[in-house]
Design brief:
The complex is a heterodimer of chains A (440) and B (457).
Chain A: H1 2-11, E1 29-33, E2 39-44, E3 50-57, H2 71-78, H3 90-97, E4 101-106, E5 111-118, H4 122-135, H5 140-160, H6 162-174, H7 188-193, H8 196-206, E6 212-218, H9 222-232, E7 256-261, E8 268-275, H10 283-294, H11 300-308, E9 312-318, E10 326-334, H12 340-357, H13 361-378, H14 382-395, H15 401-410, H16 414-424, E11 430-436
Parallel strand pairs in A: 2-6, 7-11
Antiparallel strand pairs in A: 1-2, 3-5, 3-6, 4-5, 8-10, 8-11, 9-10
Chain B: E1 5-6, E2 30-33, E3 39-44, E4 50-57, H1 71-78, H2 88-97, E5 101-106, E6 111-118, H3 122-134, H4 140-157, H5 161-174, H6 187-191, H7 195-205, E7 212-217, H8 221-232, E8 255-260, E9 266-274, H9 283-294, H10 300-308, E10 315-321, E11 326-335, H11 339-351, H12 360-372, H13 381-394, H14 400-409, H15 413-423, E12 430-435, H16 437-444, E13 449-454
Parallel strand pairs in B: 3-7, 8-12, 8-13
Antiparallel strand pairs in B: 1-2, 2-3, 4-6, 4-7, 5-6, 9-11, 9-12, 10-11
Helix pairs in contact in B: 1-7, 3-8, 9-12, 10-11
Classes of the chains: A alpha+beta (440), B alpha+beta (457).
């Protein structure tokens, strides 16, 4: 113990929070808006001869309703299945033949398309994107084969991931009203049954240029990006305005418990607490609390549950970025001799202890330091840059917040941590899920 | 002078300012060799105020003795649980406090110790890394806790076909060769591992001769050299590690292994055979051909099995290469009832390779793709560090990056056919299916001799 103290007093001097990224500073990100409302953010970075284009669309499973659950994600797949100039398969074929690759992902809140390419191919990428955003063609044959693909994606997730199995059931119970209650991939029966009209309606509603933010990072010149954006994205027209998502999840008045049976060797448990959205003032305190619980081997969960008491083989917390109030998840897998209820009580005790006694100054500073290093890590690549810029723009309302985030974290006090632990992590506000074998 | 020997291999290329794929170059580096044989690569990169440290020691799981499978993995994961000068909690709390990552892992050829940290913490982190590599104490209680955890983990991994299928494939492909070793061992072998085994393994394998360190990031060269020398000069040389193993020979006839998972929704599969060693001269050409077969979204396999038929979320192929050999496999998964159709279509698609169906335009597209996607592979400090330690472990020329584009450009249709013939296994394939055995058995024998095992065994 003595030794530790020496180390800390010698090396405690914190990472300065006056961050100066030797390359990227807030003023290095240049922005403009096209007349149709599409916002474009550009970061020049010449470390490799490549660039990327990330398109963030404000549409996700929160925009769905029963009958079309999973449609946002399915639609993401359909965006690769043919448009006017580039027919079925031609989006990928054309992009790959000029050295580019792509992917896309859908969340509860957003659909994000990602293109990675040698900068010499940038104009092709603009052409491909503008064609599918402006003139997508929904081919019935492609829809049918894509249903099979997405059913396989859904099934392989359930086959290989316990988290997937348990979280979709926990969400369905934790929310009674808000569309966050279904999984992003949707219900099997909806995947099999939505119609071409549903797809067309979705496209006309959510794929208007004013519903997107485009981020481009890499070995590009701002002026050139601007020229290409005007040429290819400028003519895109807005269609139907999306309906506002006005459903507010009613306050939970008592603990909810759900049991799911699956052939597992040791039970898995999930605790989910209602928490506010990313723009809320408690965001940074909650995010730091998540780190205190589960980041690193000195975290509360690892040291208590896994190392000292050997009640769990894994334990983590997850506080996703979110447009509307969402859940703070805790997930843990028991060791063979441990009853899931025992582990659940231990987890709640760890949080109750923080609500009562707070954390040590050392512990708080530790997670602040980790957050800063985490930001540096994401800024090491052009993809990390584009994704982070887009994430701050979409969830926090302004990409500039990415640069003030270290200070926001720095301002969180021990009292804030205590306060949020006390406010949100109460039994009446939680749902507990148990994944156990059928014989239990 | 001090005790350093500088065997200088400075490349005078410019990294920044390389705007096209054609002249994307290896960053400047310096190699220093300590008297004890330790090789250290230094690469300065200042995009972010971070440093990446990566050490490789000749202690991979291919060295696990029969009956002690999983030992290398237990050693790698125990070295950070307390050393001569730092207790376990001192290591964990010190590194966590400054946001430094630490990973210790066992690979096929080497054990790898890597850490990512803020530049100004160099003098805090380096002595810790040195101490866990050179002087771990392997306290019995900690070792037993870890063995227990790994043992439970092996049981838990049986819940996911994807997590276990590779082990079945390697075991049946490499047979008695250590490349068939399961990285984490099995319940029985873990039970037989004692603390003294860890100490012996560490003493024999964690030696400077045969090890390399790569440090990439924002540092002052003079200072870091001094620190490295101070920390690693007294690392005692050991007996050079010899690796003796039987010859790797291909299967004599096709074989089907069905791993029964009673509650499976889908069949998860690997189909393939032997591949190539990592330093194979033709590896770049092989990569270009594999890109066409199953290495990108529009590849033949993904196009047929996913896009055209909706049978799966994804199908791909690839080579896993080690120092003295490797494997090739096609991988995909599909709903139970589509298994036979999917396997047949995968084989039919694979056979296009042997019918010379690659044309000029397709080859050109693949070459562009491979070149275009190349620079981002060396964008981070950790990936550059990995390049240097890989070049050391696998004996790959440091010119690999600089010559990459030219080598891709040189591939033509004629060489393509030769590559297919020489490196892609055509006959006597190994098929591993994880799924419901009763549904797979009826048609499996048409591919080869069938063996059925249970996933819980």
């Amino acid at each position: 113990m003595n030794m530790k103290k020496t180390i800390f007093t010698t090396f405690i001097f914190l990472i300065s929070i006056n961050i100066s990224f030797s390359q990227s500073k807030v003023e290095d990100i240049k922005e403009f808006k096209l007349d149709n409302g599409m916002k474009i953010l550009v970061l020049e970075d010449f470390s490799i001869p490549n660039a990327n284009m990330y398109l963030f669309w404000k549409v996700g499973s929160r925009n769905e309703y029963p009958g079309i659950t999973g449609l946002s994600h399915f639609f993401e797949h359909m965006m690769f299945n043919g448009s006017e100039k580039y027919g079925p398969k031609m989006f990928d074929k054309t992009m790959e033949s000029v050295g580019g690759s792509n992917n896309a992902y859908t969340t509860e809140n957003l659909t994000v398309y990602t293109n990675w390419f040698p900068v010499s191919s940038m104009e092709t990428i603009f052409d491909l994107e503008s064609d599918r955003i402006g003139k997508l063609k929904i081919d019935p044959k492609m829809v049918e084969s894509e249903r099979g693909v997405v059913l396989s994606e859904r099934s392989t997730g359930l086959e290989n991931s316990n988290f997937r199995n348990l979280s979709e059931q926990v969400k369905s119970v934790a929310f009674m009203a808000h569309p966050y209650r279904w999984s992003v991939i949707g219900y099997e029966s909806d995947i099999k049954n939505w119609s071409i009209d549903d797809l067309q309606m979705y496209f006309d509603t959510y794929y208007s240029p004013n519903n997107a933010t485009v981020v481009i990072s890499g070995a590009v010149k701002f002026e050139n990006v601007k020229k290409l954006a005007l040429k290819y994205f400028g003519p895109l027209v807005n269609k139907i305005s999306p309906r506002k998502i006005h459903t507010v999840e009613p306050k939970q008045n008592g603990e909810k418990i759900i049991v799911v049976k699956k052939q597992v060797s040791t039970p898995n448990i999930m605790l989910a607490y209602h928490v506010p959205e990313s723009k809320h003032e408690d965001y940074y305190a909650l995010d730091l609390l998540s780190s205190i619980l589960s980041d690193g081997k000195s975290s509360r969960f690892y040291s208590t549950l896994i190392d000292q008491n050997q009640k769990a083989t894994s334990a983590f917390s997850y506080y996703p970025e979110s447009i509307d109030p969402n859940l703070f998840y805790i997930y843990s897998v028991t060791t063979p001799e441990t009853e899931p209820e025992e582990l659940e009580i231990m987890i709640q005790n760890i949080i109750d202890d923080i609500a009562k006694n707070g954390v040590s100054e050392n512990e708080l500073q530790k997670v602040k330091n980790q957050k800063l290093v985490g930001l540096y890590n994401t800024l090491e690549t052009i993809n990390g840059k584009s994704n982070t810029i887009g994430t701050y723009e979409m969830y926090f309302g302004d990409y500039k917040k990415m640069f003030s985030a270290p200070e926001e974290y720095q301002n969180v006090t021990n009292n804030d941590i205590k306060r949020v632990a006390k406010k949100y992590f109460i039994k009446d506000n939680r749902t507990v899920g148990f994944l156990i074998p059928p014989t239990k | 002078m001090n005790k350093l020997y500088f065997s200088l291999s400075l490349t005078l290329m410019f990294f920044i300012g390389a705007y096209s794929q054609e002249n994307f170059k290896l960053p400047n580096h310096e190699l220093m060799t300590l008297k004890n044989g330790l090789q250290i690569y230094l690469v300065q990169q200042d995009e972010v105020p971070l440093i990446h440290f990566r050490a490789v020691v000749p202690a991979g799981y291919k060295y696990d003795q029969k009956g002690k499978n999983g030992l290398s993995n237990i050693v790698a994961n125990s070295i950070s649980a307390g050393s001569k000068n730092y207790t376990k909690s001192e290591i964990e709390e010190t590194l966590d406090y400054i946001g430094a990552s630490l990973s210790t892992a066992s690979g096929m050829e080497s054990s790898i110790i890597s850490s990512n940290f803020v530049s100004k913490d160099l003098e805090t982190v380096l002595p810790i890394l040195k101490d866990i590599i050179l002087n771990p104490i392997f306290e019995e209680e900690e070792v037993n806790k870890l063995i227990q955890r790994v043992s439970i983990g092996i049981e838990q991994s049986k819940e996911s076909p994807r997590a276990v299928i590779g082990n079945y494939f390697n075991k049946n492909l490499f047979k008695n060769h250590p490349y068939g070793n399961p990285a984490s061992g099995d319940k029985e072998s873990l039970n037989s591992i004692k603390t003294k085994d860890l100490k012996q393994f560490h003493k024999k394998h964690f030696i400077p001769n045969g090890s390399a360190i790569a440090i990439v990031g924002d540092f002052e060269k003079k200072k870091i050299k001094k620190l490295l020398n101070k920390n690693f000069k007294d690392w005692k040389k050991g007996k050079d590690i010899e690796f003796e193993a039987p010859k790797i020979s291909p299967l004599e006839s096709s074989k089907v292994l069905i791993v029964n998972k009673e509650n499976a929704r889908e069949t998860t599969m690997l189909i393939g055979g032997l591949g190539v060693p990592r330093n194979t001269e033709d590896l770049i050409s092989i990569q270009v051909i594999n890109t066409i077969l199953g290495g990108r979204f529009t590849s033949w396999l993904n196009d047929e099995l996913r896009v055209n038929s909706g049978l799966t979320y994804g199908a791909r192929s690839g080579f896993s290469s080690y120092k003295n050999g490797g494997s090739f496999s096609i991988s995909t998964f599909t709903a139970n009832q589509n298994s036979e159709r999917t396997i047949d279509l995968a084989l039919k698609t694979y056979n296009k390779l042997f019918n010379n169906e690659i044309d000029e335009a397709l080859l050109e597209s693949s070459k562009n793709y491979v070149k275009g996607q190349f620079p981002p592979r060396y964008e981070t400090n950790s990936s550059i560090a990995r390049f240097f330690t890989d070049s050391f472990v696998y004996n790959i020329s440091l010119n690999y990056i600089n010559e990459f584009s030219q080598k891709v450009n040189d591939i033509d249709i004629n060489s393509t056919n030769k590559i297919v013939k020489n490196y892609f296994p055509k006959e006597n394939l190994l098929y591993v299916f994880v799924g419901k055995a009763e549904l797979i058995k009826p048609f499996a024998s048409k591919y080869g001799e069938v063996q059925v095992v249970n996933i819980n065994d």
